[in-house]
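pls ignore typos typing on phone
zinc ion + seq
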Amino acid sequence: MKHRIHKWAKHGLDWVYPRECVFCSTSLRTLKDYFYLCTACEDSIRFIKESHCSTCGAPFDGAVEGIRQCAQCVELKPIFSEGMSLFKLRDAGQALVHALKYRRGNYLVQDLKRLVQSVPEFCDFLAGACLIPVPLHARKQASRGFNQSEVLATSWAGLFPNTLVDNTLVRIRVTASQTGLSRDERFANVKNAFAIDRKALLNPSCRYILIDDVFTTGATLNACARVLHVAGAERIGVATLSHG
Ligand SMILES: [Zn+2]
Ligand SMILES: [Zn+2]
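k done
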């Protein structure tokens, strides 16, 4: 019922603010599966449903038997032990990430939920966990107006019972954007950039999942995981909207 009311409200708003597909800019006059994706662009989203690295979620090309960890994770030996990513950072998927991050993507919340619901394995992974958004520095969050990882965590947690969002992690120094940095520079850039916001220890019996928009080298997520581990977390996973 709630969804139906939301639909009607949305139809009314469409007269005032016509919706467009985030990727191809087609005007969207009727509501199908997504508010901001046309059917063709929806079909182009490359969900990571089958074989993928169990540690970071990187997609494997074709079915891979025996190998569970990608080459990057074998080298990194990350502190997080399990991970999933929803889709590849390509085409319409990339446009969604961009809209979320740089165009105040709160309006995408319904679509972000729908995307998760398309991948049952991803739902199972999130359900019942404590979701921890990768934080922005307070100054950056004030200028951007929101934290895209928090938007993801909050909208996803709302889909499942006993699934919480914990904003305990903070970014304690301003870091340069990871975009354009080499792999080594990315790791150096986020070293010692995070801390726990309170003195209480984390619960070793909880399953913590760090939430971010994109997984690239894992530098940021591993820096965050290190802080959680020191604070007492024993089961740490990562879930990202997209894998670059
Ligand atoms: Zn489109
Ligand atoms: Zn991996």
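Residues 1-44 form one domain. DSSP finds ten helices and nine strands in the chain. more later
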